[in-house]
Amino acid sequence: MKKPLLTFTFLSLWLTASAQQTAVDFFESGVGKSKSGDFTGALQAFSMAITMNPENSASYYNRGLAKANLKDHRGAILDYDRAIEINAKDAMAYLSRGVSKSKQDDYRGALLDFSRAIELNPDDPQAYFSRGASRNQLEQYRGALSDFSKSIELDPANVNAYYARGITKQSLDDYAGSLTDFTKVIEMTPKRAAAYASRGISKVQLSDFAGAVTDLNKAIELSPEDGESYYYRAFAKSKLDDYKAAMPDYDRAIKLHPTNYKAYYGRGFCRNKLGDQKGALQDFSQAIEMNNSTSEAKVVYSGRMTRAILDNLRNQVQEKNRISDLSPERAEAYFSRGVAKNKQGDQKGATADLNKAIELNPTYAEAYFSRGLIRSSQGDQRGAITDCNDAIKLNPRYSEAFYVRGLIRHSLGDENGGCLDLSKAGELGYTPAYKVISEYCN
């Protein structure tokens, strides 16, 4: 009898020690882990702080930041929502929520958040920069130009704002104006290939073809795999009637970007000028056919998982099969036998045992989950979702059930719902969810 008493004593001491940690302790631990780059650890610490003090906006905000750093922007937005609900005057929460919305291509929603952040803190250069980026995506170029200029006024050292303003000027056909901004970027960061490439493109538009070749030479030296730079250098050389020199650039542009129909046209033009009429006809035909096919059948990434990806990710999940006291109904024995049968490939027998376990113990969350795994592997995704739903109702902290349900929902086309489930799984401690979020939710 002494051993159980001793065990109980240790348990009591552990619970007492845990209880002595306050919400502030967990919050500070989360901040420290965030600073060290341990965002999964930070997330768990902030979650504990929230459990102990659910009305502290800073805990939600910082947990949102941790999720954002794990590329879980949907989950981050939910935390920013709560932080703003508690403290509607937190400019940084609006700014961060806007950034996460941008990552989800919700540029209109992001723009509203950035505008609110600017209302609350009109001297934040990052808010103007971020709003300018959203306006660019929405083709509101005049507004974007104004925002980037304001960002530069508040922070003259912000090299990204100069570059973004130069790109915006190009969108407004102000190629001459863009040269100043790209030159400033080059002065501040001489190794930035994109600045040379963009300045070279502006020079092409201004008919300064020799100057364009010089800039594009430097861009290619710094970034040898940039197909667009090869294309524009080839185009500039063609304009200078140097068709022979343009040919290898068109070849390289096509190799790097085989769907660049403009490069086929340019190469065909050069071949025509160099007397290769057969090659020219082939390139012109390719440019015509490719232009039609790419405009009519543009592929847009939707975030949908294939069945093979779902199966692979789901099969990596470990079932929760731990020994426990055997009840008089022996539901635990049916469950364990079902798990064993499934491992031997007897899915039919496994399902029968899991059905019996659930019949004997309708609150057996693990049995629902294990049956859901089998149903999913058999292609019955709707049935699998129902089982995961039941498992989660019985155990709201069942991280694996959220994870698998998220995979299935995503595979069925519900990307938002699936990614929110994956976010919840990660929040509850199932860290493999963040790798999936990073690959399929952004």
UniProtKB/TrEMBL annotation:
It comes from the Bacteria. TPR repeats lie at residues 23-56, 57-90, 91-124, 125-158, 159-192, 193-226, 227-260, 261-294, 331-364, 365-398. It holds the Pfam family TPR_16. SMART domains: TPR. The keyword Signal applies. Keywords: Repeat, Signal, TPR repeat. This is Tetratricopeptide repeat protein. Coiled coil: none annotated. PROSITE patterns: TPR (PS50005). Gene3D superfamilies: Tetratricopeptide repeat domain (1.25.40.10). It comes from Spirosoma terrae. InterPro entries: TPR-like_helical_dom_sf, TPR_rpt, Ycf3. GO terms for cellular component: cell outer membrane. Residues 1-19 form the signal peptide.
